[in-house]
Amino acid sequence: MKMILFDIDSTLLKDGGASGNSFDRAFKEMFSVLPVSVDKHGMTDDMVVRETAQATIGRDLTSAEVSRLQARYVELVPEYLEKSRSFNVLKGAEALCKKLRSAPDVLLGIQTGNLEPCAWAKLRRARLDTFFKFGGFGSDSANRTELVRIAIERGSSIAKVSLKETKIIVIGDSTKDIVAGNNNGAFTIGVATGKDRASDFASAGASANVADLTEGSGIYDILHEVMDRGGMT
Fold first, then answer.
1. Which of 17, 18, 136, 145 is most buried (CB neighbours < 10 A)?
2. What does DSSP say about strands 88-89 and 13-14: parallel, antiparallel, or unpaired?
3. pLDDT tier at 231 (50, 70, 90 boundaries)?
4. Closest to 177 (Cα-Cα) out of 16, 37, 8, 15
């Protein structure tokens, strides 16, 4: 069995600002001030909330405040996804998912810092949701290594195979994806469709890196090799 876990934002799609606009509105409704922008690249939603609160109002949020803010954010995301004019599925994403879904003994999953309802909302908007049945999400853990571990365990349970019988591949646009995948013993592939580039992925210990998810980038060849020349035909 081969289990392939994809990141969402800047790997499969770009949401055209839907997440940021939803979060800004939810934060302002709750605290009457627009949030200070923090670097969200590769971060889990929980970490974004906590770092933004420190940067904007100078304190940690209570658990109740985090829950209220996230609940409102989750309510708003579908609205902003629907009206985003710059939402787009990245080149090669759909074709690669189709190819992998048709391959024998391949299970596709998600590893993302998004809260789970937001992750599925983005995938539905991109019409990619049917390719994935499980994942590890920002609502499972603020720690990326931990949410990747959770995704792997869920996939193993669905496939009814032991982890010893499973080859894990993690694909993402952030060095945080690479580190989390490596920490879980996965073959890791960095995709330079976000902020990070080949040198960043190399420094993070990526097993391989590509420019994008198109066949011409070499990702098909990499996956073919990793999957012992039997998983993609």
1. 136
2. antiparallel
3. very low
4. 8
Q: Phi and psi (nearest 5°) for 222?
A: -60, -50
Type of residue at 117? P
| Helix, strand, or coil (residue 104) | coil
Instruction: State phi, psi for 59 to the nearest 5 degrees.
Output: -155, 165
Nearest Cα neighbor of 194 from 207, 181, 219, 213 is 213
Task: Please tell me the distance from the alpha carbon of residue 231 to that of residue 201, in angstroms, as a whole number.
Answer: 25
Same domain, 103 and 218: yes
- Residue 205, domain CATH: 3.40.50.1000
**Distance between CA atoms of residues 23 and 63, nearest Å:** 17
Q: Is 147 within 8 Å of 107 (Cβ atoms)?
A: no
pTM: 0.94
